[in-house]
Amino acid sequence: MRQTWICRLLSAAFVLALAAPIHGQSFGFAWWKDAQFQHDLSLSADQTARIDAIFQAAISQLRPKAEELTRQEELLSQQIVAGADEALVIKQIDKVEAIRAHLNKMRTLMLLKERQVLSSDQRVKLNKLHEQWERDHKRPSRGDVK
Known about the structure:
The protein has helices at about 1-20, 35-40, 45-80, 85-115, 120-135. It has about 150 residues and is mainly alpha-helical. It has a domain at about 30-130: Up-down Bundle (Methane Monooxygenase Hydroxylase, Chain G, domain 1).
């Protein structure tokens, strides 16, 4: 039972790691379009098209929400700099965090739907490919920079 829970937790962490953070950068690595991933996973043209359709549908909702998050974060920053009333700042914080939570939920559901297109064997292979991709594209941590 505990191993099943740990496996689910690791799978969820992997799903979240597959896409870059919503705020500030891109909406993720389009692994299903990468020739090496397609080959290694034996993705069919139908699977690639279905995953891309899931991504395109989600991105059309994610982008405007990400832009709204940026606007609301900027407003929060302005309120803090201006020394706004604490109650007003708290209300804005709640608004920012609600938008952020909604974005994360939408992104996670997108990733889940993408993975559901794959067979269980393909998901296992994807986990391994992702781990290798992470090793190959590791960003230096702050402690590594001199």
